Amino acid sequence: xxxxxxxxxxxxxxxxxxxxxxxxxxxxxxxxxxxxxxxxxxxxxxxxxxxxxxxxxxxxxxxxxxxxxxxxxxxxxxxxxxxxxxxxxxxxxxxxxxxxxxxxxxxxxxxxxxxxxxxxxxxxxxxxxxxxxxxxxxxxxxxxxxxxxxxxxxxxxxxxxxxxxxxxxxxxxxxxxxxxxxxxxxxxxxxxxxxxxxxxxxxxxxxxxxxxxxxxxxxxxxxxxxxxxxxxxxxxxxxxxxxxxxxxxxxxxxxxxxxxxxxxxxxxxxxxxxxxxxxxxxxxxxxxxxxxxxxxxxxxxxxxxxxxxxxxxxxxxxxxxxxxxxxxxxxxxxxxxxxxxxxxxxxxxxxxxxxxxxxxxxxxxxxxxxxxxxxxxxxxxxxxxxxxxxxxxxxxxxxxxxxxxxxxxxxxxxxxxxxxxxxxxxxxxxxxxxxxxxxxxxxxxxxxxxxxxxxxxxxxxxxxxxxxxxxxxxxxxxxxxxxxxxxxxxxxxxxxxxxxxxxxxxxxxxxxxxxxxxxxxxxxxxxxxxxxxxxxxxxxxxxxxxxx
Length: 548
Prior knowledge:
The protein is of the alpha+beta class. Among the domains are: 263-351, Orthogonal Bundle (Cytochrome Bc1 Complex, Chain D, domain 2), CATH 1.10.760; 408-540, Rieske Iron-sulfur Protein. The chain is 54% helix and 11% strand. The strands form three sheets. Strands 2-3-5-4 form a four-stranded antiparallel sheet. A hairpin with a 5-residue loop joins strand 8 (505-507) and strand 9. Helix 6 (124-146) runs antiparallel to helix 7, helix 9 runs antiparallel to helix 11 and helix 14 packs antiparallel against helix 15. It is elongated, with a radius of gyration of 44 Å. It starts with a helix and ends in an 8-residue tail after the last strand.
């Protein structure tokens, strides 16, 4: 089953990578009209060269109209061809590089940062147990290979910390055979023997119990200043009913390790047994401390010091139980009242601590992270809507005006006969300075327009300033409203130039400025000149950077 799951995972990853990389893998798109386009461009360049080389003689001037006619026909044939496919953007290389970098960072993070971050989210004891479990196979193999006492101790420590007590028994037993004076091996082997009955369900014989106690005492004598020696000695003495000696050993453990809390429950229980004059603490230690902590500060169960239950509600919960808490109906009246008095006193003191309760400061844990998981979707949603608001403001208020024309000279080119642009909003498309353009007859003057008999001629680049698609003249306002979601003001109900890729709209009567959509910059204007009965293009504004 594991192999099938792994195979399915690899298949999903492979399909995902293919779907991501396929759009980026394609290189320069092919041009189906490359051959006729190249031939026409070659003819155009030859005709331009021939026109430029004509001498100033009568015979040469007689040839000029024929050459200009042939050049115009060649340009018309070029304009009739579909636009050349745009070259692959530079972002393809950047996207592939970013994808490769993300893959490398993910792989490096998977073996470096991510494991450490996961360990940092655990409690120190949980993190130590996890690390011990991961190291266990290697330590076991090394100890069995070398047979050295130090390797057996390392194996035993990892097994003990990860609760693999059967391996810990074997490892510590072998270590003691090589060196009987190993405090850690002695005390841990002793506590494992002493608690083996609880782990296996078998009754521990008195001889085995005495042997286990001897091992723990010997380990404590060899290393009296190690906190674990005093801790395990205190547990062993308490098992044998030697409360005074057990309490002394546990208090010494607290002195040696002020941050340790492993002895709190047992100390509370011992003190409760010793304090016959305080039945409330005795009842609490016997029935409540294992879940709510030795001093009511919380553990597996909630903190009783932060409880807001009334006395009657607390009595009901204790007697009848609630949720995961068991019921205690066998408590007599005096015990129950004493316990309720204790809980009420804790509620009055709130978070104030009693002696012996050293709850550590709160730290970031997996549980606290899971309790706040809602921050991630809320932050993601807020970020998404924030970006959408910023982008909407940008495309609405960030549009640039055209300003004074900044024409740059280019090789003059005939656009069309003026008779071809006789009617209002007549259009003629052409290619100039290697850019698709459009010439229009408009009813009013705009900066850079060419006056002609009561109306005006303007020309613009057809390359959208958003991402470089071609714009086209949209004559019907209803089509503009339906297809582009833009309805011009009533006084501007005239044809507009629209980009079908991302629905940007440019107004020819506002110098080609973007009036709607994602584009921010106006269309570059073309400088027009009248030569006899023909319209010529002689200059064009620089192509702006795309504002996608």
